[in-house]
TrEMBL record:
SUPFAM superfamilies registered for this protein in UniProt: P-loop containing nucleoside triphosphate hydrolases
D-glutamate N-acetyltransferase-like C-terminal domain ranges (all copies): 147-339
A Pfam family per the record: DUF1611
Protein name: DUF1611 domain-containing protein
Source organism of the structure: Marilutibacter maris
Domain D-glutamate N-acetyltransferase-like N-terminal per the UniProt entry, residue ranges: 62-140
Cited PANTHER family: DUF1611 DOMAIN-CONTAINING PROTEIN, GLL3100 PROTEIN
Length: 358
């Protein structure tokens, strides 16, 4: 995440001066699934979190100190981060008093929602009046070119999935951390708003015009030293009826040497699409490799990342072992870690070395 190999041809998001640390805003949400941005930042950038705040009716907590904007500013916070990813990515009227209060008390606003902060007159005027910044991390960089398909130096790993919202970001972050602990020169490449808030840079792929999405993926992961790894956060799924397009663009533009397939074993159908059953892991491996060979003929699948968060440890361990035997691949839950995860890391390095030699 240090950008030593990023050069000047990556993204404008590399130049984001994110005002950290944050006061994490949870709005009035009652379902933790809608606060995934806040949970992700808490889990992977805890040093940048001062506290949390929510509105009446909000039932989600991050376990951080509950602070108002003024208290948070006194505790060192520089911005209120909207940690909610609601349906449509909108800013409802009920949030406005808290957002305006944050600006008045010396905090910038940071958002990864589809609605741009500066598009709301009251926020724009208040920010100008108080000399505060409105930071939208979902704004793609300018002048993205179409993909050229040119093979790039360095090694790349892309997390892919059987569905949305099942652990591609957490897997990529865990693999990045594990590789760094082994002395590997590695960068995490964020492709969604939460990843950008954690890493401080990246490109929100779902905000890029479709014809330029593969080009954005190329720009996100430029040429690097041959022993350098980019671990790229996956988006969506090739099987998703709505979001397969961004997944394919990311697969083609990333040109990954290695993919790790992420899966939630507890899902029977695509999230929010009950008429679409989940694909098998075998189908997910096969389709990603088939389509990935278009721009990276030596692409390999290193293994499987299972989201076993809903399972007890004994059941999770049994499933991981069973699926590993059945598929003949390393299987692990990166959040649980352990020997299984270390074997998955080994397989990623081995697959990357074999792919570059092939």
């Amino acid at each position: 995440m240090d950008g030593r190999h990023s050069g000047t041809a990556t993204t404008r998001s590399d130049l984001l001066r994110l005002p950290r640390p944050y006061l994490l805003f949870l709005g009035d949400v009652g379902d933790p699934a809608y606060a995934k941005t806040a949970f992700g930042v808490r889990d992977w950038a805890s040093a940048h979190c001062v506290g949390e705040c929510r509105l009446d009716g909000g039932r989600v907590s991050l376990g951080l100190p509950e602070l108002g904007p003024r208290e948070a500013r006194m505790a060192g916070a520089r911005a209120l981060l909207i940690g909610v990813a609601n349906v449509g990515g909108v800013i409802p009227p009920a949030w406005m008093p808290m957002l305006l209060d944050a600006l008045a008390n010396g905090l910038d606003l940071v958002s990864g929602l589809h609605t741009r902060l500066a598009s709301i007159p009251a926020l724009r005027e208040a920010a100008e009046r108080h000399g505060r910044r409105l930071v939208d991390v979902r704004e793609p960089p300018p002048a993205i070119a179409p993909a050229n398909g040119r093979r790039r130096s360095g090694k790349r790993l892309l997390t892919v999935g059987t569905d949305c919202a099942l652990g591609k970001k957490y897997t990529a972050l865990a693999l990045t951390e594990a590789l760094r602990l082994r002395g590997v020169d590695v960068d995490f490449r964020a492709t969604g708003q939460t990843g950008i808030l954690i890493a401080g840079r990246g490109i929100a792929m779902d905000a890029v015009v479709a014809d330029f999405a593969a080009g954005a993926a190329e720009r996100l992961s430029p040429d690097a030293a041959e022993d350098h790894w980019d671990v790229i956060e996956g988006q969506g799924s090739l099987f998703h009826p709505a979001y397969a397009g961004v997944s394919l663009a990311l697969l083609h533009g990333s040109q990954p040497d290695v993919v790790v397939v992420c899966h939630d074993p507890g899902r029977g159908h695509m999230l929010g699409y009950p008429d679409y059953p989940m694909p098998s892991l075998e189908d997910a491996i096969g389709l990603n490799l088939q389509l990935g060979r278009r721009t990276r003929p030596a692409i390999r699948c290193a293994g499987i990342s299972l989201n076993t968060s809903a399972m007890d440890p004994a059941s999770a361990d049994a499933l991981i072992e069973r699926e590993g035997r059945r598929l003949g691949l390393p299987v692990a839950d990166p959040v649980r870690g352990g020997a299984c995860f270390e074997r998955l890391v080994d397989a990623c390095l081995d697959a990357g070395a074999a792919g570059r030699a092939g």
